Amino acid sequence: MTTDDRPAPFGRALCAMVTPFTEAGALDLDGAQRLADRLVSRGCDGLVLSGTTGESPTTTDAEKSALVTAVREAVGDRAALVAGVGTADTRHTVELALAAEKAGADGLLVVAPYYSRPPQDALEAHFREVADAAGLPLALYDIPGRTGTRIEPDTLVRLAEHPRIVAVKDCSYDLFGTQRVLARTDLAYYAGCDEQILALYAIGAAGYVSTVANVAPEPLRAVLDAFDAGDTQRAARLQRRAIPLIELMMAAGLPGTVTAKALLGTLGLPAGPVRAPLRPADRGTADGLLRAHRELVADAGQSQA
């Protein structure tokens, strides 16, 4: 499969964008527009709004809709907008899906219902009900480490028959299962874990949905571009160069939302505080993130020279 014929309904380089807040904790729509414009200008051809990184559990329905409308105004048709609408309640998820469609989203990200841990037949029915209700294409979000429920490969194969279920954001850490679905369906897979961007892309994924792209959109996009150009050694080198920052942001004990906002704030970019129960990173953590970011950006500049 070449990069030209692999399905990529929402683009290739997607950022799971933070939701900027003011220092008082209110939704910062101006900041969201400025951040979205910056990300798109630096290589992101898709933005996921109100996902995990976007603090969807602590934003209101009205804030979610307002965010889509504002970001659409800022980026126009330069990037696909995918709205996170997943909740633990099927009825609420359908309501959010319809609201996101009205607000101007291009697609919907629907996570497996969490906490109640529905069995696979109930999970399948949940996704089908959302897909039937909305007029937008769906990306299913498989992240059992957070939801407690895996979307099993056989379930994904069945769901792929639905005309509006077109993609998967994959945080399953099951490379074999991912390949089984890729071999049997036309679903577009997006790496949801930054350390797996190249690995999944190499076996036919569409691209990635990245938290780290909030602060390093160009170095991550460069991984895909090098692979597309046929320079797989360079792609591997670029992926490895990003690992220190990826590790600090995603695997050092703090949620990616916390580390992304800490680094964005240190860089003087729109972010603001996190909402409780999340707590901000301490100064030492922010300084460490900044050092890793500077090293990655410097390496990227040298490799392009």
UniProtKB/TrEMBL annotation:
Binding site for pyruvate: T53, V209
UniProt EC number: 4.3.3.7
Chemical reaction(s) catalysed: L-aspartate 4-semialdehyde + pyruvate = (2S,4S)-4-hydroxy-2,3,4,5-tetrahydrodipicolinate + H2O + H(+)
Metabolic or biological pathway, per its Swiss-Prot or TrEMBL entry: Amino-acid biosynthesis; L-lysine biosynthesis via DAP pathway; (S)-tetrahydrodipicolinate from L-aspartate: step 3/4
GO MF annotation list: 4-hydroxy-tetrahydrodipicolinate synthase activity
Gene3D superfamilies, per database record: Aldolase class I
Sites marked Part of a proton relay during catalysis: T52, Y115
InterPro entries tied to this protein: Aldolase_TIM, DapA, DapA-like, Schiff_base-form_aldolases_AS, Schiff_base-form_aldolases_CS
Active site per the UniProt annotation: Y141, K169
Keyword vocabulary terms for this entry: Amino-acid biosynthesis, Cytoplasm, Diaminopimelate biosynthesis, Lyase, Lysine biosynthesis, Schiff base
Enzyme's top EC category: lyase
Keyword Cytoplasm: yes
Compartments, record wording: Cytoplasm
Function of the protein: Catalyzes the condensation of (S)-aspartate-beta-semialdehyde [(S)-ASA] and pyruvate to 4-hydroxy-tetrahydrodipicolinate (HTPA).
Family: Belongs to the DapA family.
Complex and partners: Homotetramer; dimer of dimers.
Protein name: 4-hydroxy-tetrahydrodipicolinate synthase
The organism of origin for this protein: Streptomyces lancefieldiae
Underlying gene: dapA
